[in-house]
Write a structure and sequence with these properties.
58% of the residues lie in helices and 8% in strands. It is mainly alpha-helical and 475 residues long.
Length: 475
């Protein structure tokens, strides 16, 4: 992305850092320096209610067969009290704590102690030591990309146990799902709190820290840009990919095993959920090196939003379709199953090809062909915190000429396919598409606000050339 650099004099730096009182050239890049009332209200709402939302969804499945309305009706009519629901909820157990501790420790070992070997024999796979994007302070971090290897090793052991060793039941995750929820919350809050303390007292790179002076905002959105322990343990990369996303496919497999145990078969809807979401997870790890250039790594600081979100929100709410199908097995008609599969595959194709075009354009600095033609682009520049000027290019060809975030459009198509596998008897499985629509629309706006702050008038030129965000001709 940075084809050329220029060093600017110190006196040109005009952004004040509230951490050390120095002045820098950094415009708003990453999370905010100041907190408006709406952002603060949103953050307080999420801190208070996001854990309750997760609990409500999981409890509804456990006690009300996945109905989101019946618990409210029971409470309003006096049939049950909150204490009745809470007392019926499984508590934290030593067994769940042991399972979760071993799981996280195993993923840490796979991440830190075993260098990647997959890139040595898998054509086209980029693994091993890779460089990330330039941080606001001008730092280029190195990462050990070995997520695909961790996923393969984990699943090989899972299937070896299921078919040969029988050390534990394949339904172990489902059978301990709510006790594991408490474990995930403990880790999520612990790592978020540790990250905040670390940002104040021993940050990895002090110049990449942001302090607003508001405790809740700093706790939620994070202070450090790339908190690390030692040379290789990067908090953002580990918690974004492991343990949550490695677990995603294991969770679905556990749901399928439970369906087999309860009903004597695995429905085609459960198979579709496992296949479509499995494709997404494998895509993530196959392109983990590319992920280093995405918004999560390039812009987000590490706080509760990522720490707790990756430990709790992702594994518990992204897998609602499989959980629902345990309680309500749906056998789809052939035409419906094929239609849902095609929707998911087309969505994945759009998602992957859009990102591939961007990655190809970035890697070749525009010296490539998109749809058989040399890509068109807009030249732009931005400044890092140390006064270095970087030059970049924004592509306006291919899918990126259709909409500025067309990869999100494909992502939403895949998300809808997951939900459609569950039929239309309950609204719970459709939380995912509602949430993803809100999340990705917000990301569009958030990303574009940052890009405008980063690129200035060059970003206005880009939005004039590509006027639509998600849906060509509509939005």
């Amino acid at each position: 992305m940075a084809a050329r650099q220029e060093k600017k004099p110190t006196e040109e730096r005009n952004r004040k850092s509230t951490q050390n009182g120095t002045r820098t050239s950094q415009v708003q890049w990453g999370r905010a320096w100041e907190v408006d009332w709406f952002s603060l209200a949103s953050i307080l709402f999420l801190l208070m209610f996001a854990p309750l939302i997760v609990y409500y969804f999981i409890m509804s499945c456990d006690q009300y067969q996945c109905s989101l309305i019946d618990p409210v009706v029971d409470l309003l009519t006096g049939n049950k009290y909150l204490s009745d629901i809470w007392n019926k909820t499984p508590t934290l157990t030593y067994r769940a704590a042991g399972i979760y501790t071993l799981w996280v420790a195993f993923q840490v070992v796979l991440y830190v102690c075993i260098p990647d070997f997959c890139h040595k024999f898998l054509p086209g796979y980029v693994g091993g030591v890779q460089e990330g994007a330039v941080t606001p302070a001008g730092v280029v971090n190195k990462y050990e990309i070995n997520g695909l290897q961790a996923w393969i090793v984990t699943h090989m052991l899972w299937f070896a146990n299921a078919y040969y060793f029988h050390c534990f039941s394949p339904t172990i995750i489902f059978d301990n799902w709510i006790p594991l929820l408490w474990c995930a919350n403990i880790l999520g809050y612990a790592v978020s709190t540790f990250a905040m303390i670390k940002g104040y007292f021993f940050p990895t790179n002090a110049k990449d820290c942001k302090f607003t002076g508001n405790f809740f905002y700093d706790y939620m959105m994070g202070i450090e840009f790339n908190p690390r322990i030692g040379k290789w343990f990067d908090f953002k990369l580990f918690f974004n990919g492991r343990p949550g996303i490695v677990a995603w496919t294991l969770i679905n497999l556990s749901y399928a095993a439970k369906q087999q145990e309860l009903y004597g078969q695995v429905t085609n809807s459960m198979i579709l959920v496992n296949v479509l979401q499995g494709i997404y997870v494998l895509d993530f790890f196959w392109n983990e090196a590319w992920y280093l250039k995405t918004i999560d790594i390039c812009h987000d600081h590490f706080g509760w939003y990522l720490g707790w979100g990756d430990c709790v929100w992702l594994p518990y709410l992204y897998t609602l379709q499989g959980l629902y199908l345990v309680y309500h097995p749906v056998q789809l008609g052939t035409a419906n199953a094929i239609g849902i599969l095609m929707l998911g595959l087309i969505g994945y194709y759009i998602f992957r090809m859009t990102n591939h075009q961007k990655d190809l354009f970035r890697r070749t600095n525009g010296n490539c062909k998109i749809w058989g033609k040399k890509p068109e682009y807009i030249e732009c520049s931005y400044m890092s915190v140390d006064g270095t000027k970087y030059h970049s290019k924004l592509m306006t060809s291919g899918f990126w000429g259709w909409a500025r975030h067309f990869n999100y459009t494909g992502d939403l198509m895949g998300s809808l396919a997951y939900c459609l596998t569950c039929g239309f008897d309950h609204i719970l499985p459709y939380f995912y598409i509602v949430y993803m629509t809100i999340l990705l629309t917000h990301r569009c706006i958030r990303d574009e606000h940052r890009c405008f702050s980063k690129y200035g008038k060059d970003w206005k030129r880009y939005t004039s050339a590509v006027p639509y965000r998600l849906i060509p001709g509509i939005f």
